Amino acid sequence: DAKTTQPNSMESNEEEPVHLPCNHSTISGTDYIHWYRQLPSQGPEYVIHGLTSNVNNRMASLAIAEDRKSSTLILHRATLRDAAVYYCILVANTGFQKLVFGTGTRLLVSP
Amino acid sequence: KAGVTQTPRYLIKTRGQQVTLSCSPISGHRSVSWYQQTPGQGLQFLFEYFSETQRNKGNFPGRFSGRQFSNSRSEMNVSTLELGDSALYLCASSFLSGVSYEQYFGPGTRLTVT
Q1: Which of B10, B24, B59, B103 should one mutate to test binding to chain A, selecting the residue with the greatest count of A CBs within 10 A?
Q2: For residue range A53-108, what is the model confidence (pLDDT) as tens digits?
Q3: How many whole angstroms separate alpha carbon A101 and alpha carbon A96?
Q4: How far is Cα B101 from Cα A49, in angstroms, rounded to an integer?
Q5: Residue A1 reports pLDDT greater than 90
Q6: In terms of CA atoms, which chain B residue is nearest residue A41?
């Protein structure tokens, strides 16, 4: 399984944008980049995923570098509810469902 | 639509016993995956079931097993419990199996082995 590297923690103020980086220099051409987050005392929650192009949804945006060796999850306006551990996961295009979670980035949001 | 439900939410067992955990996926979802979460090892993939067949298995001993029923509901079983099996067991469902399908997680079953 290809490995991702994320900062252990980041801090943000409420209503400010947050950019969560992820390095994945060993990504293969068919690996998808998925982001999940886990709020305290809850199961993980899907955020967004992409392959090559930048992606937007109602929760966030995903910016993927041209060489695909890094990506950035963008929360446009952080709220207190966004305080969570964010996981960047490479998912091999095998036809199976298997998420290999790393240690993620703990996002702290201050009012 | 109702989310993924897991029962029971909390469980206390003794070493050597066995336990069965249940997961009901979102209606219409056919893939069910199981994960174990511990403070030391984080979130680890156990196995995935799709159309009643185990399609993928993580690096866990044979004491961990599962099955899926025709209505997509799934159970996982742990036999001969060890103290190290104390963990949060999470079930996730997706519409189909494959990289394009997001997984929806349940709240988990907190298992404590004494």
Answers
A1: B103
A2: 999 999 999 999 999 999 999 999 999 999 999 999 999 888 787 898 999 999 99
A3: 15
A4: 9
A5: no
A6: B107
